[in-house]
Amino acid sequence: MALTLTIKRFEDLTAAELYEIYRVRVAVFVVEQECAYQEVDDADRRCWHVFLHDDAGIAAYCRVIDAGVTFDEVSIGRVLSLRRGRGLGTRIVEEGLAVARDRMNASVVHIEAQTHAHGMYERLGFVQVSDEFLEDGIPHIGMIWRADAAR
Q1: Cβ neighbours of residue 31 under 8 Å, at least 6 residues apart?
Q2: Rounded CA gap, 51 and 56, in Å?
Q3: What is the DSSP letter of 25?
Q4: Alpha-carbon distance 75 to 121, whole Å?
Q5: pLDDT averaged over every residue in the chain
């Protein structure tokens, strides 16, 4: 079955969509990765929610956060794929970058990537800009994507 792409601001999400987003994010980041942190945060109200889904639910998700909320630049966060090994992580980040470029006029996008996924982000044009650090007990690195370098 083909996946449907949905891109919505917080205020445009239905209650069912918001519930499903929070359900899958908690399942991955809090339960699977065993990170006790405030998963639902105020940034959710100031971003685009981007997800691929079908009748079985959300398959991949990310949020594209307005500049000035988390970082000075537009940022992408909460990247997840529930159907791993199918390229959905790459696809959802590509869709997030398209939102940043086309809907937010971003020429720079900031992420804090889990270190193990740095190769995927590099293939998409992100460049490492920080040393490795721990975020909720998981190694991360800061990375930047620049529109002028991605062409």
Answers
A1: none
A2: 13
A3: H
A4: 13
A5: 90
Q: Which residues contact 32 (CB under 8 A, 6 or more apart)?
A: none
CA atoms lying within 13 Å on the CB side of residue 69? 20
CB 72 within 8 A of CB 108: no
Q: Which residues contact 151 (CB under 8 A, 6 or more apart)?
A: none
pTM here is 0.91
Burial environment of residue 12 by CB neighbours within 10 A (0 to 12, 13 to 18, 19 or more)? exposed
Cβ count within 10 A of residue 97: 23
Please, what is the Cα angle at 98 between 117 and 43, to 5 degrees?
Answer: 70
**77-103 confidence digits (pLDDT tens):** 989 998 877 889 999 999 999 999 999
Backbone angles phi, psi at 14, to 5 degrees: -80, 165
